[in-house]
Design brief:
Blueprint (H helix, E strand, L loop, with lengths): L1 E3 L2 E3 L1 H20 L3 H10 L1 H12 L2 H11 L9 H14 L3 H13 L3 H11 L2
Antiparallel strand pairs: 1-2
Helix pairs in contact: 2-3, 3-5, 4-5, 5-7, 6-7
């Protein structure tokens, strides 16, 4: 039995609510993996927009997966959006790999849309 202010909670109903709240908190804390977010970028649509925002909120955790993802031909549909996120991260993180990868892709990425996105976002 738990007393809070005017109400007293007892029995299984109260415990089931606590278990449900705990389970919901755990699900929210887990979120999507970085690899799932990269696949969402490549998929496009609403999932793409959400993935982009989530990636920007996890700068240190997503750097390595993004650097690998922009090299992956299977995720080619999301490379321009990955470049967008990488340029944004370059402004927040001090990591030499970012600048080197963006310069390399600005010059030699096979997709002109990726090259132009990097140039535009980086202000070249």
């Amino acid at each position: 039995m738990v007393a809070t202010g005017r109400r007293t909670y007892t029995g299984e109903g109260f415990m089931s609510k606590i278990v449900l709240l705990f389970a919901m908190a755990m699900c929210l804390a887990c979120g999507s993996s970085e690899d799932d977010l990269l696949h969402d970028l490549a998929a496009g649509g609403d999932a793409r927009d959400t993935a982009k925002q989530e990636l920007l909120l996890r700068p240190t955790r997503v750097l390595e997966p993004l650097l690998l993802g922009i090299e992956d031909p299977a995720l080619a549909a999301g490379h321009a959006d990955m470049a967008d996120v990488l340029v944004s991260l370059m402004l927040r993180l001090d990591d030499e790999r970012l600048e080197a990868a963006l310069k390399r892709h600005l010059i030699s990425h096979p997709d002109p849309a990726v090259r132009s996105r990097i140039a535009f976002r980086a202000g070249c």
